[in-house]
Structure formats: C-alpha cells, structure tokens
Design a protein that fits this description.
2 domains, GMP Synthetase, Chain A, domain 3, Rossmann fold, alpha/beta, ligase, 8-stranded mixed sheet, single chain, 9-stranded mixed sheet, globular, ATP binding, nucleotide-binding, 28% helix, AMP-dep_synth/lig_dom
C-alpha cells in the first residue's frame, strides 16, 4: 500500500535562481547577520555578492564538474559561498569543522575538491590538507596567512555566469550521512533535489518575509542547509547565524534578535522544556519550532508548548531524503512524525520478504519523491542497495502507518537488539530510562552475549548517585521481561552527532574496549 502527500510541481530550474528569485524584491531586508550583529547582508547585497563571487570563481577556471569545499561554522557568508559555487556550475561539499584531519582529507579526496573555503580559525587545519588532497587553493572568509581572502573573489563585477544546468542530473551539493551506525557516505543532491527540499519546507513549515530564524543547526548538515538556510532565503526570512551552541547564548539570541522561528534538535528541546535558564529570558517572540535530526519525545514537546507558548512539531527525513514528513500545527498523534510532504510517496514493507504492508504493521519505511538523492558518491553498489528500481529509498528505519498515512517511527532496523530471537528497540528503553528521576541522559545498545546473542546495555548520565541495580530494576518494572536492561554503565556524557542522534557505534566500541 502506497501512501501519498498532496501533488506539487517542482520548478525545472537551477537551485540558486530558485532560492534567490525574490532577492531583488526583498532588497534592503536583512538576509543574513551574525548573532553579534556583524557580517550583515541584505538580500540585495547577498545576491550581488553571489554574482560577483561566482564570476570570481569562473575567472579562476572553476566551472561545471568542479567541486568546492566549505569548512566553516554557521556564518553570514556561508550562503554566499555556497550559491556562488553552484551558480558557477560546480558542486559544493560541506564539511564539519569538528571532524578529524584524516576524515576531512578522505572526504576532500573522495569529492575531488580543488578549492577549500574556510574561516580564520580553521586555516591551519585547511592548509595542512592541501598536500594530502587535490585542493589547490584555500580561501578564507576574512584574512589569514597562507590563504586567499574571500574578498579577492568579489572584485569582479561581471554578470552572473550563464552556465547551462540539467536540474535532474547535475549535482549541486554533496553532504555526508551521519555515520551514527556505520561509515558516513557522500550523498549526491541534484539541483532538482535541492529545489524540492527548499520548496517542500516552505510548504510544510512556512516562515515568511517578517520572520527571523536563529540559524543554529549546522549548515554542513542536511537539516541546516536544505531546510533552514535555503528555505529561509526562498521566503525572504532573516537568518541570524550562530557559529556554535551555548545554552545561555542561544537563549540570549532569541531574546535580543526577537527570533520568531527555531529549527532545533531534541537536545535543545529538552533545554527549552526543563532548564531553569529559560526563565531568565524573554522568549515571547517565538511563533514556531521545528525539531529534526532525531526523535522528539512527545512529553518534551508538550512541556515546550506549555512553557514557551508556541507551536512545536517534528519532521522526518534522512540526509538522503530530507523534508519527507511533518507534523501538523496541532498534532492529534504527538508520537508520529506526521503526514507525507507534497510530492512524497511512501510504503512500509516486510523486513524479510519486501512485501507491502497495510496500516499498523511494523516494517521498513521506503520513500519516493523529488527530494530523494541521486545516489552515493563513488559507491554504485551502496546506491543500488538503497534505491530500488522504482525509485524508492530504503530508509533502514522501522515504522508503521495509520489509515490516513500518518507515520510512526519505531527504530533503526540495524539498531534493533536481538535478545534470544526477540527484537528489542533501544529507543523504547531510552524513553523509559529518561523517566527515572536520577537519570539526566541515557542511551541503549546491544552488546554480545554467549547465551542470548545480544543483551540491552544502558549507558547512563546520572543527576545524582544511583546504582546499576536500581536503574535495571526501574526499567524491569515497566517493560516486558525480554526487554529488560541487563547491564548499566555510568558515563559523563552520551556521544551524539551534531543533530542529537546517539552515536551507538561509539558506545559499542567503548564496550568492546572495556
């Protein structure tokens, strides 16, 4: 059974021409500004900077088939760099500044990037990568020894390069899957994919011309780049960029900039729901919050609604298929991830046989739509494994649909714990652990066991002294016998990706090392 969202027409155009189509009309409205107030670009200035930087790139021989890399936190210049490279006919690979030098070198080499744009604080790391990759020039947003100032690219006031684009085939961006359960892969997103992501976001989570978004989720992640950055620019929204997350700075920015819309990950929702810091700041300007990247606890969402007094909803999508589902403004089923976005189709299939399943039956979720990636970079076999002949993406997520198509996520299939043949969901056990009054944070993984194959092990961050036996007994009282946690280890923190997903691979490696 295939469930479908409303129909929608995706414009057959290049990404930048679509996202910045209203820039001239928005004119003097602020497009991007740093949280400190520096680095301000109006829409007119942003569009001009994109044109001039694209011309500067073309003058350097950068064009169709070339790749530019960006290694930077969220700064006002980020959309200028990104759209200049795309306008010049190239693709952009976005990199995480927190990654190791070896990881960055591998991704640059894999993508074949020959230009690397960074910030002054990352120039030493960036220049060290030149000899290890195809990167021939490092460009810095500002000034730093050993790098070309970005201002040099803006010196040419030539017209926007007229580069022919096949929106359905030409790649605009290369992002990387989270790697929370396996090795990260380069995700190829075409102009059409990226146009669809911006358009669908504007339909399911609209902001508007008078809105102000605090750009906290990193632009190097699909959530930050495709939903927050491009969709906001499409709608004439002001982006207030923050380079890194700090709870007090986050709350202060909402108050001082009168932020109307937030894109957050669940860990930020917990802050808004429970932290006493919230009471020190005026957050009354907030109208709407979108949570993504990982599952949002409905109880936490309810606390945020009551405390902040604004709408909060979660969406669902992978790096490969961002903007696939979104909860309605007033969710009637708070635990769901909502209905399929316009143009999106999905089905739930039996994990073993692939047979299509009807409502309320658990299976793997498969998604099809204009937002689904072209494939993985230099990985034809991995692409064939996840994209079937009908264009459906195998998400690797276990879930079920209601009769009306509203979707519920149960867990990652690969993360399910096999205890004596029974399937145990780590997410379910984590939700129980987080209700314990002495537990601040928790994660659960399966660890090898000679008799049971695997047993659930909890990693717990405690608010106050507790014993493993106390924690295990608490869970045992609330779950079926085969779901009981059999081991507990106390840790200082739970390792998570930038969007809040538990890095289960790290926890399993920690257990093996112990």
């Amino acid at each position: 059974m295939i469930f479908r969202g409303p129909s929608v027409d995706i414009p057959d155009t290049s990404l930048t021409s679509f996202v910045l189509r209203g820039a001239e009309r928005y004119g003097a409205r602020v497009a991007t500004v740093d949280v400190t107030g520096r680095g301000r670009y109006t829409y007119a200035e942003l569009a001009s900077a994109v044109r001039r930087a694209a011309a500067g790139l073309r003058a350097r021989g950068f064009g169709k088939g070339d790749v530019l890399a960006v290694l930077a936190p969220n700064v006002p210049e980020y959309p200028v760099v990104f759209h200049a490279a795309v306008s010049a006919g190239g693709a952009v690979v976005v990199l995480n500044p927190l990654d190791t030098a070896d990881d960055l070198a591998a991704r640059l080499a894999e993508a074949g990037a020959r230009l690397l744009v960074t910030v002054p604080s990352e120039v030493v790391k960036a220049t060290a990568l030149v000899g290890r990759t195809a990167v021939a020039e490092v460009v810095v947003l500002g000034e730093a020894d050993g790098a070309t100032p970005f201002a040099a690219l803006l010196a040419d006031d030539a017209p926007m390069p007229d580069v022919p684009v096949d929106p359905a085939r030409d790649v605009a961006a290369v992002l990387h899957s989270s790697g929370s359960t396996g090795h990260p892969k380069g995700v190829l997103l075409t102009h059409r994919n990226m146009v669809a992501k911006a358009l669908l976001t504007s339909l399911v989570a609209p902001t508007g011309e008078d809105a102000r978004v605090l750009a906290m989720p990193p632009f190097h992640h699909a959530f930050g780049l495709t939903m927050m950055m491009n969709a906001s620019l499409l709608q004439g929204t002001t982006l207030v960029t923050m380079p890194r997350f700090d709870p007090e700075a986050f709350l202060r920015a909402i108050q001082e900039h009168r932020i109307t819309h937030l894109y957050i990950v669940p860990t930020m929702a917990v802050l808004l729901a429970r932290s006493p810091l919230v009471d020190r700041y005026d957050l009354s300007s907030l109208r709407s919050i979108v949570s993504g990247g990982a599952t949002l606890d409905p109880a936490i969402a309810a606390l945020v609604r009551r405390r902040i007094g604004c709408h909060i909803a979660q969406g669902y999508g992978l790096t490969e298929s961002m903007v696939s589902f979104m909860q309605p403004e007033e969710p009637t089923r708070p635990a769901s991830v909502g209905l399929p976005a316009p143009g999106v189709e999905y089905k739930v299939v039996d994990v073993d046989t692939g047979a299509e399943l009807g409502p309320r039956r658990n299976g793997e979720i498969l998604i099809r739509g204009p937002q689904v990636m072209k494939g993985y970079l230099n990985a034809a076999e991995a692409t064939r494994d996840v994209l079937d002949d009908d264009g459906f993406l195998r998400t690797g997520d276990l879930g079920y649909a209601e009769d009306d198509g509203e979707l519920f996520i149960v867990d990652r299939i690969k993360e399910l714990i096999k205890y004596k043949g029974q399937q145990v969901s780590p997410v379910e056990l984590e939700a129980v652990l987080l209700t314990h009054p002495k537990v601040a944070d928790a994660a659960v993984v399966g660890v090898p066991d000679e008799e049971a194959s695997e047993v659930p092990k909890g990693f717990v961050v405690a608010k106050e002294p507790a014993t493993p036996e106390e924690i295990m007994a608490f869970v045992a009282e609330r779950v079926a016998p085969y779901k009981k946690i059999r081991q507990v280890e106390f840790v200082d923190r739970i390792p998570r990706t930038p969007v809040g997903k538990v890095e289960r691979r790290s926890l399993k490696e920690r257990d093996r090392a112990a």
